[in-house]
Design brief:
Length: 139
């Protein structure tokens, strides 16, 4: 069995449209699989000695606050240290789970001025990521 994985930094148009169609107002739990750059790379060309992990941490702390202010929370964050089941190259450095009250709430956060101000650190720090949208099956 082979598995094709393509880390990305943003959702495609189709992914965004599909998520909006799935939104039923229930809380979502976004599983974040994060792969960091060795060194932060800022799009504006600024010189930085930050690691990708450190640049992302600047973004992460602010994103947690924005999420909490909107009624969500960081559920879990941890470093990946290896595979236990399955075969493949571990492509991620860290995993996080964020709970948002709904997809619409998450969208409002990422469309806000406050988010735009911190997004530069996310892009500088990440080599790629996967976001897996989940919901509580019990409703």
């Amino acid at each position: 069995m082979s598995m094709w994985i393509d880390n990305a930094l943003t959702p495609s148009y189709l992914q965004t449209q599909s998520a909006m169609q799935r939104d039923d107002g229930r809380p979502i739990y976004m599983i974040n699989l994060l792969q960091f750059r060795d060194r932060a790379e800022y799009a504006d060309g600024r010189s930085s000695e930050l690691s990708g992990r450190h640049a992302y941490a600047i973004y992460g702390r602010a994103m947690i606050q924005l999420t909490e202010d909107a009624g969500g929370q960081l559920v879990f964050a941890g470093d990946v240290r290896g595979l236990f089941i399955g075969i493949g190259d571990v492509q991620w450095d860290q995993v996080g789970i964020m709970m948002f009250p709904s997809f619409r709430v998450m969208t409002a956060i990422i469309e806000s001025k406050a988010y735009a101000d911190i997004h530069v650190h996310r892009v500088a720090g990440l080599a790629g990521q996967m976001l897996i949208e989940t919901v509580d099956p019990s409703g």
